[in-house]
Structures are given as C-alpha cells and as structure tokens.
Amino acid sequence: MADTFRSVFDIIGPIMVGPSSSHTAGALTLGKAASQLFQMQAKKVTIQYYESFAETHLGHGTDFAILGGILGLSTEDPMLPHSLKMAKSQNIEVNFIEETDPSPVNHPNTATMTLERNDRRIIATGCSIGGGSIQLNVVELDNYQMTIDGYLPLYFIKQNNLHRNIYTMTDWYAFFEKHSYQLSDIRIFQENEVEWVVLYMETPPSEKMISEINELAFVEEAILIS
Q: Where is the Serine dehydratase beta chain domain (predicted)?
C-alpha cells in the first residue's frame, strides 16, 4: 500500500465528475497519460477494455472519462460527460472495444489505448488502481515496446547512444542528486542507436531540471507523464 498510495488523497480520490474514482477519475488519468505520450492531438483513438472495465465502462462513465483525459479535460471539468461529442466535433475517430480475454497485466481495471495521427502512433496499456491513481504497464514508442509497470510521475527520455558522453544510469542518478532529488528507479531500453530512459519519480521535476535535460546534446526527446 505504501508503494502505491503516497497520501490520503490518493485513496479518497480527486474532485470529479462521475460515479467512481477507479472507473472515472482513474480512467481519465490513463487517457491523460496516453495523450502526454503522444504529444499532439490524435485523429484516431482506439480503447480496448479488459475485465471490469469491459463489463462496466458504460454505466461508470469510463468512456467519457478516458476520452476526456485524451482531450486534456480535468476530473472536475463540467464538459467531461460531453467528451465523445467534443471528439466528434473535432473529427476524431473513436472506437471502444470490449475484450473477452483476461487483462494482459493481471488487473481488472485495464485499458490499452492506441493514439494515431498520420504516420505517428503510440500504444499504452495501464490500469486504474484506485483513488484516481494509475499504473502504466506497457508503452510502445517508435514501434518499440517497453514494459514499465510504474506509477506516475514517469519521465521518458530518448537519447542517441552514438553521441559522445551519453548519460549512463549512474550519470542520471548523479544529475538528480545534484538537484537534491532522489529517483525511485531507472530503466533503460535500447534498440540500435536509440535508448529510451525511463525515470521513476516521487514528484515532478523542477522547471530547472526539465530545462537542463532538454539542453543535453544527446537527448532527442523528453516526455514527462504526471
């Protein structure tokens, strides 16, 4: 429990439109995380529901919540129940699929979100763990799949390993220690000349840290999910 919920507000959940912190607020956070990974407005959205999500998404408002997160709405936004109409007005194709197979990540509140626009696509699988909190389990970026199994915030950093003085895991720990920040964990996924570094964080980094990371010569992309 201590590793999952950091405060009483993680258990109670946020102020929200909808009947359930797990099926509404958590679903919105899943959609928001997918949108942050995509970094632009999707023109096609496919949501695959598993287990409890597949059985109850209509009655619990999961559809409008997860899509609202993708559209950038907050949990208390009065427009949240109208997110499907908003997507239609923006010519966004939306498909919801009720999967009959068990959750691929062994959690009843699981969704796989595929966001597409032209030749760009990301896929994110995550679960709503209660109180509006989520876990991201599997992420596909640049056609490269990564098993994350991490709680927010997460920092995805794409670095070119052909560049001189690229940061190793030790270097990333030292970078944050310099800013008096303790990382929870680091995972590095490598394919050819590209590495995705995933930083597991307790709180979002400061604007100063974000600015310094973006200025590193070998960093091609940096995506904060919070």
A: 7-134
Closest among 22, 18, 30 to 151, alpha carbons compared: 30
| pLDDT score for 22 | 65
Whole-model pTM?
0.88
The CATH number assigned to the domain holding 55 equals 3.30.1330.90
Q: Which of 151, 167, 201 is the last residue of a domain?
A: 151
137: domain range?
1-151
Q: Are residues 199 and 126 in the same domain?
A: no
Longest CA span, the chain: 54
Q: Pick the last residue of a domain from 130, 151, 172.
A: 151
Question: How far are the Cα atoms of 5, 58, 121, 221, 222 from residue 38, in angstroms, in the given order?
Answer: 26, 25, 7, 12, 12
Quote the CA–CA distance of 115 and 88 in Å, as a whole number.
15
Q: Taking Cα atoms as reference points, which of 226, 70, 66 lies closest to residue 152? A: 226
- With left for phi above 0 and alpha for psi between -120 and 50, is residue 78 left, alpha or beta? alpha
Same domain? For 138 and 174 the reply is no
3-class DSSP assignment, residue 27: helix
CA dist., res. 169 & res. 146, Å (int): 17
User: 10-residue block means of pLDDT along the chain (226 residues)?
Assistant: 44 48 86 98 98 94 96 94 97 98 98 97 96 95 93 96 91 97 95 90 96 96 96
